[in-house]
Amino acid sequence: MSQNKSKNRAVAGVIVVIFTFQLWNVVIRPVARAFVTGDEKDYAEAVFSVLLTAAICGVVVVAFMIVMRPGVVRLRAVRRLEAQSDALALTARGNDELRKALSAGLLLKKPDERKNLPGFSFAVSANASGIRFWVGTKDPENIVELDWADIDTVTTGGVDDDVRILPAISIQVRPGNSDSAALVFALGTERFLGMGFRGRASVEAVAQALEAIRLASVES
Description:
By secondary structure, this protein is an alpha+beta fold.
């Protein structure tokens, strides 16, 4: 286990402990005390604690929605753009290894515009002609466009987010090509604004679907 991964897990553990302590101290204990004592003041403090916690949780949820909504808007826009080609469109998660593979500019449609490398999320579309990566929101920009002839395989792999290994799509650009690289990325869920990550079974199903499109295109 890498030092960074161990550090991040330790930080995550500390956050869980602090959250649990605060939940006990701010919510559970005042409510329990109010039920035990029956005192009006304790009831008032318990109600205030619950309302305050609910308000904080609401702010956190709204913040997550604001952060994640661009991904939903982007995916809808890509699906509109690709509607005539019956493309498969997905929300993908950016990572350091993917950005490193693309930063050389060899696979980018505009090699000099590395500022558009995928951030936390981007969109992927695939049809009979190949695979495309999209960034942006309402007007997504196609930053990577790969023909199936340039791709060796589409399989599953893993992405290390310094806390756990996430199941991921692995696109192997054909060996021997000067642009050869493995493009690996996790997938976002379709529910709750895509806040979560897809599980292994879902990722494997997507990889199989992409590989089937590739094989059908190559054999035709």
